[in-house]
Amino acid sequence: MQVLYTKQELNDFVADERNRNNIIGFVPTMGALHRGHLSLIEYALANSDITVASIFVNPTQFNNADDLKNYPRTTENDLQLLENIGCHAVFVPDVKEMYPEPDVRQFDFNGLDTLMEGEHRPGHFNGVAQIVSKLFDAVQPHKAFFGLKDFQQVAIIRKMVEKLDYNIEIVACPIVRERDGLAMSSRNQLLTDEFRSVAPVIYQTLKKSQEKWKEFKNTGQVIEWVCTQISNTELLSVEYFEIVHQNTLKPVEQSEDINGHIGCIAVWAGKVRLIDNFIYNY
Ligand code: AMP
């Protein structure tokens, strides 16, 4: 596996592969890799000729300085995991390489960024678009693979691709979970044992809420039920839970059947913020 530190090295690598008519698949990450990330690499390996990953903890998407400072960094281990799985190249730039100058670009996502994660993490999606567009420009992939764990992020990236007219296929990949249902996340390693043992309640509650709609036939009551169940654990505190349309991310009406729509949640487990989602399907 090639480990590339500069845009120039990356450029030379992808130029060669493009000249060989190879399809380039790209998986951007912030490292601290787990099976969720590795599943994206597997999708990329299966659906392209050359798989390029990136590891970069992007400062502009953090709206909380402590979160950025505490974000787990395990680069040596990450490189080993990528090598073992057969990834062809990994781009590991430093902050100066990606931001030689401050990025002042402001993106317009037609309102997709004003709710849920966007509402609670101001500027987050603008920072995501800054780095993903820079990485897309540097890698120039044919396809890019993103996890549905960050459902709203996928919608934002698709909107960015449309607006900036990138010729890149965005492939959305399913959420990988721990055996107890907790969605895998780099931040899970920051959970103490106490919070880790209660965290699976998030997914278990989302799953059960599907049945609850059949009982209540009212979206507002389902939302209230989910928030109550999770808050009852006493250790977990719900930041938001919303049931929204998958494409527009607009809230589902009280009387509307939730089937085909998606419940998105953010929960604080002590100082660690966890997100998850569930697509209703019955
Ligand atoms: P991150 O390193 O958190 O920025 O994530 C990099 C990519 O991995 C994003 O596209 C995430 O959506 C994806 N990802 C993170 N966790 C999971 C998971 N549990 N299952 C599937 N994809 C994931």
Description:
By secondary structure, the protein is of the alpha/beta class. 41% of the residues lie in helices and 19% in strands. The protein is built from eleven helices and nine strands. The chain has helices spanning 7-19, 35-47, 65-70, 75-85, 95-98, 117-120, 124-139, 151-164, 193-198, 201-216, 219-231, and strands at residues 2-4, 24-29, 50-55, 89-91, 143-147, 169-173, 236-244, 262-269, 272-279. Strands 1-4-3-2-5-6 form a six-stranded parallel beta sheet, with helices on both faces. β2, α2 and β3 (50-55) form a beta-alpha-beta unit. α7 (124-139) packs across α8 and α10 (201-216) packs antiparallel against α11 (219-231). The structure holds adenosine monophosphate. Adenosine monophosphate is lined by residues 29-30, 36-37, 39-40, 146-147, 149-150, 173, 175-176, 183-186.
Structure in a nutshell:
The protein has about 280 residues and is an alpha/beta fold.
User: Which outline best applies?
Assistant: globular
> What is the average per-residue confidence, as pLDDT, rounded to a whole number?
97
Low-confidence spans: none
Outline the biggest β-sheet: 6 strands, parallel
SS summary, helix count: 11
Question: How would the blueprint of this fold be written?
Answer:
Layout: E1 2-4, H1 7-19, E2 24-29, H2 35-47, E3 50-55, H3 65-70, H4 75-85, E4 89-91, H5 95-98, H6 117-120, H7 124-139, E5 143-147, H8 151-164, E6 169-173, H9 193-198, H10 201-216, H11 219-231, E7 236-244, E8 262-269, E9 272-279
Parallel strand pairs: 1-4, 2-3, 2-5, 3-4, 5-6
Antiparallel strand pairs: 7-8, 8-9
Helix pairs in contact: 7-8, 10-11
The structure holds adenosine monophosphate.
